[in-house]
Design brief:
With 535 residues, this protein is of the alpha/beta class. It has three domains: 217 residues, 2-enoyl-CoA Hydratase, Chain A, domain 1, CATH 3.90.226; 202 residues, 2-enoyl-CoA Hydratase, Chain A, domain 1; 45 residues, no CATH class. It has 20 helices and 15 strands. Strands 1, 2, 3, 4, 5, 6, 7 and 8 form an eight-stranded mixed sheet that branches. The structure holds coenzyme A.
Length: 535
């Protein structure tokens, strides 16, 4: 493979301005993350401490192997969404190593409204289980939750991807041989009682954990019986009388130790063997990415400058470099693993579509995972290209990406607009992970295009009635659309709604991809099975 030649001049004032700008964006995200990681209110923390309980993030830290990374999923979920502050959507999820095994950890944050499930808490829990299923990961549930957030029950309970789906997923994961373990470290009430009940092995902590379908207040209201939580469904009851839990722990330390023992006795999964050589750091410094990415996503930049700062030794074997040049395709190694990379250098044309579809076929037949670096405003429009069959060629690419048998990983490094989002493996195309950079934007189209389209629709309506809109009236239609599109395409807006798995530091993209590839190897890659390519 040959090394990418970089044209970046780190002394250039434009580079410096971009560097400052992108660092500022990242710092803003990091500040929010830091705040969110504190969990609920000070008062809730104090109550928790008084009860002798650990904070959910402390539990995670203690249960992980000493040197284990923790790949946190969607830390900024629910940011600025509900009237209440619901940091991290009241649940911490992520992958780390326990007793040498890669495990998906799902931990309720009891300091956020008693660990109850808001709509986005449910969505985040289910996303974590989906990642576990796709990457063959066992799960650990650190349970401390009052179940559904009752004021929003209509958005939490009845539908397919609501609360009940959590327990369904547990059964499915278990049926695939993926160990499901619960540590009941607080109350596990009502519907929530099924998280530990549906696990393969469950530990419960003395005078701290409790499992019941109806808690003491409900029992009193229903039958008049006065009973304490411990008597109703505490550790003694469930390990000695009911058998709902399997292990009795006198405190959290013992409970967490037991978790580690259980995972130590779980057989190690044999990793799929991907083509790998010794990893080499990129020749160009990943830190330079901050100086490359422009201040607005409307300014072009060469995706190969980014590839050079992600892949081993900055080496890239480009495929069809002279053809369909707005899509960049090629092979490179990341952490020693052979990968196929697809990036954008402009709007998508028919020939760039067929080139991408061809490249995906090559990767699928050779079982090479695919990485999408998305910076795309969409497919080319206009009579010439419609006549040329743009939708047909776009469909070839979308067919290939949809039915690719290899793991796909997507990083949105700029724009993610329109059908470009589909072709470049947006959320609907099931990438194993999808991350955004702080500068990234996502929407059906850019703010200007949306404003133009909607103004044109209005102008046409007026024309039908023989009226003409004044400049002022057009401006009054345009401005609010621009404003709304700008706000709603931001990375923070996306990540709060779990349209992605988190906003990442651009300079650490390589590390995220390496971890993601490692995780994907827990599952054997499927055989090639494409649909019909429209010719
Ligand atoms: N829905 C909405 N809010 C809830 C809630 C629920 N199911 N359970 C608790 N809360 C809120 C409380 O109103 C309180 O809010 P505030 O801080 O704004 O006052 C906050 O969560 C903490 O509750 P609190 O009871 O003070 O904390 P706790 O640690 O002593 O107990 C629970 C937490 C969850 C165990 C306890 O509140 C409880 O049993 N809740 C009812 C659970 C239930 O029956 N759920 C049915 C779900 S299907």
């Amino acid at each position: 493979m040959s090394r990418i030649y970089s044209n970046i001049n780190t002394k250039d004032p434009i580079y410096k301005k971009r560097y400052e700008h992108n660092k500022k964006l990242l710092n803003k995200v990091n500040e929010i993350k830091e705040e969110v990681q504190k969990g609920g209110s000070l008062k809730a923390h104090e109550v928790n401490k008084k009860r002798g309980k650990l904070f959910c993030r402390e539990r995670i830290e203690k249960v992980l192997d000493k040197a284990s990374p923790f790949l946190e999923i969607a830390p900024l979920a629910a940011y600025n969404i509900y009237d209440d502050n619901v940091p991290s959507a009241g649940i911490v999820t992520g992958v780390g190593r326990i007793s040498g095994k890669e495990v998906m950890i799902i931990a309720n944050d009891q300091t956020v409204k008693g660990g109850t499930y808001y709509p986005l808490t449910v969505k985040k829990h289910i996303r974590a289980q989906q990642i576990a299923l796709e990457n063959n990961l066992p799960c650990l549930y650190l349970v401390d939750s009052g179940g559904a957030y009752l004021p929003m029950q209509d958005e939490v309970f009845p539908d397919r991807d609501h609360f009940g789906n959590i327990f369904y997923n547990q059964a499915v994961l278990s049926s695939k041989g993926l160990l499901q373990v619960a540590l009941v470290a607080g109350l596990s009430t009502a519907g929530g009682a099924y998280v530990p009940a549906m696990c393969d092995q469950t530990i419960i902590i003395k005078e701290q954990g409790a499992i019941f379908i109806g808690g003491p207040p409900l029992v009193k209201a229903a039958t008049g019986e006065v009973v304490s939580a411990e008597e109703l469904g505490g550790a003694d009851v469930h390990t000695r009388i009911s058998g709902v839990a399997d292990y009795y722990a006198v405190d959290e330390e013992m409970g967490l130790r037991k978790v580690r023992e259980i995972f130590a006795h779980f057989p190690n999964c044999k990793k799929y063997e991907l083509d790998r050589v010794a990893p080499v750091e990129p020749y160009y410094d990943p830190d330079e990415i901050y100086g490359i990415v422009p201040e607005t996503t409307e300014t072009f930049y060469d995706v190969k400058e980014i590839i050079a700062r992600i892949v081993d030794n900055s080496e890239f074997e480009e495929f069809k470099d002279r053809f369909g040049q707005t899509v960049v395709t090629g092979f490179a190694r990341i952490g020693g693993y052979l990968t196929g990379i697809i990036g954008n250098n402009g709007v998508i044309f028919p020939e760039s579509s067929t080139k991408a579809a061809h490249f995906i076929e090559l990767c699928c037949f050779r079982k090479i995972p695919l990485i999408f670096l998305q910076n795309i405003t969409g497919f080319i429009v206009g009579k010439k290209y419609e006549h040329q069959g743009m939708p047909k060629d776009g469909a070839k690419w979308i067919t290939a990406v949809s039915t690719a048998n290899v793991p796909k990983f997507t990083v949105i490094i700029g724009n993610s607009y329109g059908a470009g989002n589909y072709a470049m493996c947006g959320r609907g195309y099931n990438p194993r992970f999808l991350w955004m950079w702080p500068n990234a934007k996502i929407a059906v189209m850019g703010p200007n295009q949306a404003a133009d389209v909607l103004c044109q629709v209005k102008i046409n309506q007026y024309k039908r009635d023989n009226k003409i809109l004044s400049e002022e009236e057009i401006k009054n239609i345009r401005e609010p659309i621009l404003e709304e599109y700008r706000n709603k395409s931001e990375a923070l807006y996306s990540t709060a709604r779990l349209w992605d798995d988190g906003i990442i530091d651009p300079a650490r993209t390589r590390q995220y991809l390496m971890l993601a590839i490692e995780l994907s190897l827990n599952k054997k890659y499927d055989e090639v099975n494409f649909g019909i390519f429209r010719m």
